[in-house]
Amino acid sequence: MSSTADYTPPKVWAWNKANGGRFANINRPIAGPTHDKELPVGRHPLQLYSLGTPNGQKVTILLEELLALGHKGAEYDAWLIRIGEGQQFGSGFVDINPNSKIPALLDRSGPKPIRVFESAAILMHLAEKFDALLPKEAAARAECLSWLFWQMGSAPYLGGGFGHFYAYAPVKIEYAIDRFTMETKRQLDVLDRRLAESAYLGGDDYTIADIAVWPWYGGLVKGFLYGAAEFLAVHEYKNVQRWADAIFARPAVKRGRMVNRVTGEASEQLHERHDASDFETKTQDKLGSS
Ligand SMILES: N[C@@H](CCC(=O)N[C@@H](CS)C(=O)NCC(=O)O)C(=O)O
Q1: Are strands 76-80 and 104-107 parallel, antiparallel or unpaired?
Q2: Residue of 101, 116, 125 best suited for mutating to test ligand 1, as the one with most atoms within 8 Å of CB
Q3: Tell me: the pLDDT tens digits for 127-149?
Q4: CB 3.0-4.6 Å disulfide test: which of 4, 47, 215, 239 passes with 54?
Q5: The domain 138-255: what is its CATH number?
Q6: How far is the CA of 192 from the centre of ligand 1 (A)?
């Protein structure tokens, strides 16, 4: 790889397999499956194929919130897709998400299975199915969906931009880090100003907009992402901090964050979730180790 100063793009780009980046082994310029692999199917109506990254956590947090609200139909099997090992390129996974990214959901509750990919589409599918956490009144619904889609458009600058160049790229490029830090801080300020006006992003009530935004921006101000809390001076975003703490205190959020997680403390990793009792074993592990 050339250094940043002497690189001139060639006429036609060619795939350099060993570019040294953290995800060089899984990044490809082509779509489609790399190997045949059927997906496992459990006993519940909802089959989730995911990993406990911020995008994955959105769905498991919502499912745990729905179960806490008493929606028994939200019982789910959460299967682990190890993206670092390329499992998102297995044929079964590509059948339910042609974009080869977690999370992906198969809703088997009706006569024909419904596939859903893209986390916001999954959140809307589930919120509408259970008539929960997505307001029906036009203005409240529009506000909730606006913040939900704000997250989908904004987080790639945080993750793929800031997180990549600050934490993962093999070289520290000041221009790239500056550019995406600027944008990430601007986004935090957007949220901070909104949360100065209302308790939650959609207004007075907690909705799928908060569930989508929290794992990214709540995670950032709580110091869970990229070791970047000090660099970004996250203490300055007081309203985001207040909101992030309130959401983090929710038991369903604590459970949702554990599902399909393969990093952090062992007692907080529930690699697969097939039953509500799976969390109890983990709680016992934690008590046993303290
Ligand atoms: N816009 C997508 C983004 C999903 C996404 O980027 N997933 C990442 C993990 S957080 C992934 O599966 N990456 C695997 C890859 O790029 O090969 C969503 O919100 O569902």
Answers
A1: unpaired
A2: 101
A3: 999 999 999 999 999 999 999 99
A4: 215
A5: 1.20.1050.10
A6: 26
